[in-house]
Amino acid sequence: MKEKLRRIHSIPLEFNEKIFMKAGDYRIYRDAVIITPGVHTDSVSMMPITYTQEALARYGARWTDNNLNVDHFQDTMSHIGFVYNGCFYNGAVCGDLYINPHTQKGRDVITKIDMGELNHLSAELLSYEEWEGDSIYATDIEFVGCAVTRNPADPQTRIT
After folding, report:
1. Which of the four, 53, 106, 155, 158, has the lowest number of CB atoms within 10 Å?
2. Residue 137 to residues 38, 93, 131: CA-CA distances in angstroms?
């Protein structure tokens, strides 16, 4: 009777030590407030949309992408980091911001945050909209990122 042999195939790990060592250098801002319940008017649609506490609580942890950008620009140089641990916490959708200090924009944003000159965020999201009378309500929300901005739709956002 033949015995089955267990084989583990492995590929040797090769890495560039410089790149590996830089991976942990991100500046982290914990529990940043990304959006709070309320009526917010974004700069694209110019329509006031109601984000209820129930909808934000239900979908606050639903992140299909986690890019952190500057002023919602999607170009390569405006991507400065990531949002991790997105969730509904203390009555708002919050997350941890990881900002890369190895780009000039990343360093500039970190400096402005640390000096108190920049302290607002703007959620990047997709949602269905339901009309009730003259009001629009966001439902089935999917967060796809966040932007550091000086002109947020929700003035209660903050980087802690």
Report:
1. 155
2. 10, 17, 6
Whether 33 and 156 have beta carbons less than 8 Å apart is answered as yes
- Provide the residue type at 94 as one letter: C
Q: List the domain boundaries for the chain.
A: 37-149
Whole-structure pTM over 0.90, yes or no?
no
Tokens representing 138 are: 């966001």
Instruction: Return the CA Rg of the chain.
Output: 20
DSSP state of 24: T
Q: Which residues make Cβ contacts (< 8 Å) with residue 57, sequence separation at least 6?
A: 88
- Please write the tens of the pLDDT for every residue from 57-86: 999 999 999 999 999 888 888 999 999 999
